[in-house]
């Protein structure tokens, strides 16, 4: 038995002196140097007592060192849990206890804040700085620059990614070696990545998008990454001429569009812009094409399934859609029993394929609720499929508003509001209402100059929407609450506005 994931990502296809990471200070780390450090990390994990199948929790700054620990974990057969750097000690305590982590690695600056929690949870805590400092960094430095690669089967677990858990407890999605490998292979092929690419990487790497999509695709293709700590429009504009591809969340695209320096000349060297993790407005897609001449390629996936659909590289990249099922992935739009609906009808998206996770760690009931016996995963996303297989996401099933017994799909209302003059964006939610069960509420961000008014929005919608879909309350805000992946936090808005109609 061999370790196919390790070989595919870190095998001999990587050049020795070819550059892998181009860092903000202009330094570059070669593939060979990275692999040597990864082997040291594998050695350090073993010395720290971790055996294949054990878990290491990582709350680390985005850095080459963090990627090297991940590579070392894959090499040593250790399961890794990348955790959001924003999590508090109390939140971390849940993840490391739930996962029964054998080691927690954190930035040296966090030692004081985490020591008490780690000792209460009974988990050894070691430090690793972005510059290789910290006791774990030092331990790794004493290890050989080559390490044995642990054999792993496709079904062996590679990583736990905890879902963001806007409702209820966060769940540990178990991703196998086979899950990660199949998606990396398919995406690199579908998006035509080669070693001639340079990927501009400004996403976090504790999330599926920045780690299993962006990083794994670059690795499997042998392409270097311009590795930015976070998205900064000025930096991205400075670096775009050195890149050939960028993967981003929709806010990357809207923020870049807001900058007058974005034009055809700046993006002339680019081969591909990809968007995902949250809906890209059709308007943004069109504006991007008008300004740069590039049609953004939008794709759709989630923590539990990796990527499911993508617009085609060659062919019709359809604005407002997330494209068609990736090769090897089955996608269908179903009623609540799992029966497929006729094309064009709104239903729940279900997916099956080698990309779909192994279930939620130690939550067999939750797993059974969402993963059918026949292997289809109930995504919880509502969408439609066109006659030729293009999927359009309408929203999360839990965001569906049921007012007076009628279904209201937030996206339908949001699209109309967003198209009105003076509106920047909007979020439509349902809040409890004594008569209707739920009432439609719109939270709207207007443009700075000549912004829209509540009255103008109300009047405009009257002619366009059935009465039950019209917002019973419209609220103007300076911005919408978003998480780090650019997703609008509707649960937060619902909580804030829950008493709007209480009697
Ligand atoms: P996460 O597990 O954090 O990656 O979130 C996954 C969810 O993000 C999906 O279930 C969708 O609701 C949403 N999502 C991802 N990509 C897209 C997209 N291209 N358009 C709309 N929603 C998306």
Write the SSE topology.
Layout: H1 4-10, E1 19-22, E2 28-30, H2 31-47, E3 55-59, H3 64-76, E4 79-82, H4 89-98, E5 103-106, H5 111-121, E6 125-127, H6 135-141, E7 157-162, E8 172-176, H7 177-190, E9 199-201, H8 208-221, E10 225-227, H9 233-239, E11 245-248, H10 250-257, E12 272-275, H11 282-292, E13 297-302, E14 306-310, E15 324-325, E16 330-334, E17 347-352, H12 364-370, E18 377-385, E19 391-396, E20 401-403, E21 406-408, H13 410-418, E22 423-433, E23 437-446, H14 454-462, E24 473-477, H15 490-496
Parallel strand pairs: 1-10, 3-4, 3-5, 5-6, 9-10, 9-11, 11-12, 12-13, 23-24
Antiparallel strand pairs: 1-2, 7-8, 13-14, 14-15, 16-17, 17-18, 18-19, 20-21, 22-23
- CATH fold-level label of the largest domain: Rossmann fold
Please count the helical segments.
Answer: 15
**Overall pLDDT level:** 95
Globular, elongated, flat, extended or rod-shaped: what is the shape? globular
Oligomer: single chain
- Chemical compounds bound to the protein: adenosine monophosphate
**Main sheet record:** 9 strands, mixed
Structural class: alpha/beta
Main CATH class of the largest domain: Alpha Beta
Which radius of gyration do the C-alpha atoms yield?
23 Å
In spatial order, strands of the major sheet run 2-1-10-9-11-12-13-14-15
Describe the model.
It contains 15 helices and 24 strands. The protein has 503 residues and is α/β, with parallel strands linked by helices. It folds into three domains: 4-152, Rossmann fold, CATH 3.40.50; 186-396, Rossmann fold (3-Layer(aba) Sandwich), CATH 3.40.50; 400-496, GMP Synthetase, Chain A, domain 3. It has a nine-stranded mixed sheet with strand order 2-1-10-9-11-12-13-14-15. It has a four-stranded parallel sheet with strand order 4-3-5-6, sandwiched between helices. α2 (31-47) crosses α6 and α10 (250-257) crosses α11 (282-292). It is globular and about 70 Å long. It binds adenosine monophosphate.
């Amino acid at each position: 038995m061999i370790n196919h994931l390790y070989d595919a990502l870190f095998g001999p296809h990587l050049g020795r002196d070819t550059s892998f990471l181009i860092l903000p200070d202009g330094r570059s780390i070669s593939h060979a140097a990275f692999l040597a450090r990864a082997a040291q990390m594998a050695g350090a994990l073993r010395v720290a007592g971790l055996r294949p199948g054990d878990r290491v929790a990582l709350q680390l700054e985005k850095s080459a060192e963090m990627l090297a620990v991940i590579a070392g974990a894959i090499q040593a057969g250790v399961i890794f849990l990348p955790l959001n750097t924003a999590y508090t000690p109390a939140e971390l305590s849940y993840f490391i206890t739930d996962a029964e982590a054998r080691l927690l690695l954190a930035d040296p600056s966090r030692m004081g804040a985490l020591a008490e929690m780690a000792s209460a949870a009974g988990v050894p805590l070691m430090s690793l700085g972005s510059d290789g400092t910290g006791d774990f960094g030092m331990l790794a430095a004493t290890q050989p620059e080559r390490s044995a690669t642990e054999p792993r089967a496709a079904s062996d677990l590679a990583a736990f990614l905890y879902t963001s858990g806007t409702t209820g407890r966060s769940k540990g999605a178990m991703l196998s070696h086979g899950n990660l490998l199949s998606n990396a292979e398919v995406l690199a092929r579908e998006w035509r990545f080669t070693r001639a690419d340079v990927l501009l990487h400004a996403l976090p790497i504790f999330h599926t998008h920045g780690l299993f999509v962006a990083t794994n695709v670059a690795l499997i293709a042998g392409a270097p990454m311009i590795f930015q700590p976070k998205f900064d429009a000025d930096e991205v504009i400075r670096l775009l001429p050195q890149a050939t591809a960028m993967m981003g969340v929709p806010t990357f695209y809207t923020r870049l569009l807001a900058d007058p320096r974005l034009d055809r000349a700046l993006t002339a060297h680019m081969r591909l812009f990809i968007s995902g993790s949250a809906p890209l407005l059709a308007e943004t897609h069109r504006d991007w094409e008008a300004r740069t001449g590039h049609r953004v390629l939008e794709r759709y996936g989630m923590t539990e399934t990796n990527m499911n659909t993508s617009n085609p590289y060659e062919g019709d990249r359809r604005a407002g859609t997330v494209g068609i099922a990736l090769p090897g992935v089955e996608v269908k739009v179903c009623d609540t029993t799992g029966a497929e609906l006729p094309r064009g009808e709104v239903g729940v998206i279900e997916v099956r394929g080698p990309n779909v996770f192994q279930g939620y760690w130690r939550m067999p009931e939750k797993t059974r609720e969402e993963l059918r016996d026949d292997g289809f995963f109930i995504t919880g996303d509502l969408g439609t499929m066109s006659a030729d297989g293009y999927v359009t996401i309408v929203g999360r099933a839990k965001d569906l508003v049921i007012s007076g017994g009628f279904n209201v799909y937030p996206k339908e209302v949001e699209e109309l509001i967003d198209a009105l003059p003076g509106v920047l964006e909007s979020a439509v939610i349902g809040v409890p209402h004594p008569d209707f069960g739920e009432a439609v509420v719109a939270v709207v961000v207007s443009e700075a100059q000549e912004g829209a008014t509540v009255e103008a929005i109300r009047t405009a919608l009257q002619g366009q929407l059935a009465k039950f879909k019209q917002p019973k309350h419209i609220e103007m805000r300076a911005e919408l609450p978003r998480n780090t992946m650019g997703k609008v936090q509707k649960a937060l808005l619902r909580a804030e506005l829950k008493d709007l109609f209480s009697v």
